[in-house]
Amino acid sequence: MARPSASSDVFHAIADPTRRGVLEALRERDELAVGALAERLDVTVPLLSRHLAVLRAAGLVVEQRSGRRRLYRLRPEPLHELHDWAATFAEFWTERLHGLADYLRANRPVPSGQTSNTETEGPHTDDP
Fold first, then answer.
1. Domains in the chain and their CATH numbers?
2. Which of 18, 31, 64, 79 is the most exposed place for a label (fewest CB within 10 A)?
3. Whether pLDDT at 59 is above 70
């Protein structure tokens, strides 16, 4: 079975907390100007412009010019690719967690005063 792919650009883009903040802000609003994004994220416009360039390169945002204003919109399709890629590990982790649960149930400590079906000897002590 072919594994879904996700662009390394998308991984790089979402690795930075400021860029994730941009994506979250754009998710909440349809469209935001650079100045509004910078104010909302408490970053300078030059710094934000560098982050927006990375997001544009990854295809996560689109820019529209309106006069002198630059407006940005979220383009979520690359995030779907990322989600699909990450979902391939869901079965792996589900199996591992079920195995851990089975192990923990099988090795659950027995409350004092009770005996386990698998326990044939009393508690081990180092006292003579």
1. 1-106 (1.10.10.10)
2. 64
3. yes
